[in-house]
Amino acid sequence: MTVCKHVFYSGRVQGVGFRYTAQNVAEDFEVAGYVRNLPDGTVEVLAEGSPQQVDAFLTALAQRMAGYIEQTRVVEEGPSGAKDFRVRY
Question: What is the distance between the alpha carbons of residues 3 and 31, in angstroms, rounded to a whole number?
């Protein structure tokens, strides 16, 4: 079963290597999707894969960036069909 979670992080999340870190952390998990900065200062992550892999990835990312994240909003969606994880601009 494939799940897709669309996550929005706010706080001091831009200009601190969040996208690079997300891409690095994603390499350790079987997840696909993307990370990108949004104009309002938040960072958007779309992660899809098995429920265990997606949750483990999001937990690891939150732990690595804990000092920068103030709020997290998660929206569960249908799978998008992403094949890899990348930074979007």
Answer: 10
Find the catalytic residue in 19, 24, 36, 64.
19
pLDDT above 90 as % of the chain: 99
Task: Compute the CA torsion angle 42, 6, 32, 78 (nearest 10 deg).
Answer: -160
Choosing from 12, 24, 36, 37, the catalytic residue is 37
This prediction's pTM: 0.96
Helix, strand, or coil here: 44? strand
Q: Please tell me the class of the 3-80 domain.
A: alpha beta
What residue ranges do the domains of the chain occupy? 3-80
